């Protein structure tokens, strides 16, 4: 016969015992039940029966505790609401009929709930949890666990009501006949429903995942950042922790064109129609058109994984561009600036976005966490460049971070390069001070190829744009040196035309430098000598290296074709047409940069001035 005894003394509650020691019941208090002539003979009989029951209970508890073995405990509950806890070994824990709380410890445990509404927790090992017939809660741990529901409406995977997530290993969760809720953890998981209406709940939002369907019928959710996967089968409803009051189906996730690899979605600015266009690259689909109430809408540059800044070069502001939970793009708040922005440059360590000016040689620092302007500086004067190469109307080149605490701003009118130092004060405010400057022989467009030498000095290349004629003789590639707070020109080499966006060859030893007069100068990085010249197109500006294909693609800004070069032989492969010349509408037929597909088979470019992809 089994008894459920509650609070006979402070030492006896519901059946509760640890797996690491024998749960002997001691210190049974009988104070007040002895003589002093207070008990009649029937009362004595009742007392005797109670004491006998206590003895039986002690025996039962000690038997249920089982023998402690090196490999673990065998613990068995009964008809009561039992609390059974395993030990350091591989435990076998069975709850039976009550509403039990069963937990393992460090071993690889097997835990069986039974008929009640049980709570099972595996903890550290590679555990197997089976709920049974009740409405059970099964919680994994840090190991690679297998969780099986049962006939009730079960919850698998969640640690507690504050929505933390209970398992980090590669887990297997299987529901049963009821309407089960299965929580998807952070490892590589397999989630299988049952005969009821089952729900899988993920962390984050749909935009955090890509969804595919395998031939075996599993829906595969791949986390974009961690790369972990969840294989789902027989799940009727899918929910996400970051999206309230919304459920998804397998079909709705698979048919959402935005829920794909981030590299497959690209956003471009259309300066002709002042809009942002969202393209799905793998299918060449136009997914969205977002009109922007601004002039010369140039680009959208990501500052976080799913947030970008829209840059209109003809208006004194930037605008936020977000991706919502389902991946679609939405315009956000406007951030006012004292100038028209040219190009952003985000520092991944301090979180600051550096903007240079399009109409004034100024800079602005924006905190990407708050989207607030924290500092501005430079000459508050409307200016433009003094040359014809690559469109001279913008006041500055591309400002560049040197490290977390320094950046350079190029003034295209005065040819001045200014070095600034950034620091954060105790009150959280940002402070910016000018530490040095120099006047270069010609204006500088951008910076690339940064490296530190043995002395701790930073070397970085600065392409000179040249002056007034298209076929320059005074354009140079400069190597700058930043030594502490000081800035100087370390070396330079004359090139055949104005420079725009050269690049370092994948071997690290050469520089491909497209020039405004339609040539590509190949420069030895160590001795700063031009070793070869290759013919390209008018306004050759950008180079894109695809090392896996031994290929360099040259973007010719003022021509209708691009140029392909073999980077092993440094020979031109071919010119290939990409745009239709329309002199009444366009002056620059190709976007500055393009995207390369993950398999390195395709290159995508947007002709931003004609709205053609």
TrEMBL record:
InterPro entries: Hemolysin-typ_Ca-bd_CS, Hemolysn_Ca-bd, Quino_amine_DH_bsu, RTX_toxin/Mannuronan_C5-epim, Serralysin-like_metalloprot_C, WD40/YVTN_repeat-like_dom_sf. It is found in: Secreted. The keyword Calcium applies. Its main location: secreted. The keyword Plastid does not apply. GO terms for molecular function: calcium ion binding. Residues 86-134 are annotated as: Disordered. Gene3D superfamilies: Serralysin-like metalloprotease, C-terminal, YVTN repeat-like/Quinoprotein amine dehydrogenase. This is Calcium-binding protein. It comes from Leucothrix mucor.
